[in-house]
Design brief:
Strand content: 5-15%
Radius of gyration: 18 Å
Structural class: alpha+beta
Shape: elongated
Strand order of the largest sheet: 1-5-4-3
Oligomer: single chain
Helix content: 40-55%
Distance between the termini: 46 Å
Number of strands: 6
Number of helices: 8
Largest sheet: 4 strands, mixed
Order of helices and strands: EHHHEHHEEEEHHH
Number of domains: 2
Length: about 190
């Protein structure tokens, strides 16, 4: 059918929203610090939900597509109408019980998909903490078990252009992200 929805129409920022994608990035980073920083900056400046469940990115997209097809939402116009009829977003639940938010964007990949806030199998993360810890683990893997504030502050100031963390400052969010990501990543 011309114009039928397929997984290419689903925009899912996997590095930002899928734990396994972050792990893959850490174990197979792009060459060069600038390319790494370009990818890391896509985390944004606010907070987001990171899915850590068992579904792969292809499985998430396939289940999303299947649910849309079951609802007879099978083309861009139908999808736009379906989303607009519910205040610009919809929520679906996937097979593992996780909830996902769907929005419409006027683009080739018009199905904007991300984990719903506080969904099962997700954790809410502050973007600057995620950026800081991803850089920290990429460039200083020997520190993966503990937070070295001077090393972290060097990254925050010189690479991410963020304010430093005080030596006695609150590092709870940074520790949370370090614990979430600080495993071996095949290194």
């Amino acid at each position: 059918m011309p114009g039928a929805i397929d997984t290419n129409h689903i925009l899912f920022h996997e590095l930002k929203h899928h734990h396994a994608a972050v792990q893959f990035f850490l174990s197979h980073p792009p060459d060069g610090r600038e390319q790494q920083l370009h990818a890391i900056r896509t985390f944004g400046g606010s907070q987001f939900d990171l899915y850590y469940g068992s579904l792969s990115v292809p499985a998430i997209k396939a289940e999303t597509l299947h649910q849309l097809q079951e609802l007879k939402v099978d083309n861009k116009a139908a999808y736009h109408t379906w989303i607009q009829a519910h205040h610009g977003h919809r929520t679906i639940q996937l097979s593992d019980g996780s909830n996902w938010t769907l929005r419409y964007i006027d683009h080739l990949s018009f199905i904007h998909l991300h984990p719903s806030r506080y969904s099962p199998h997700t954790i809410r993360i502050k973007a600057n903490a995620m950026k800081s810890i991803v850089c920290y683990l990429l460039w200083h893997p020997d520190h993966k078990g503990q937070l070295d504030i001077p090393t972290l502050n060097h990254i925050r100031l010189h690479d991410l252009h963020l304010s430093p963390i005080a030596n006695n400052g609150n590092t709870e969010e940074l520790q949370k992200v370090l614990q979430l990501l600080g495993n071996d990543f095949g290194r």
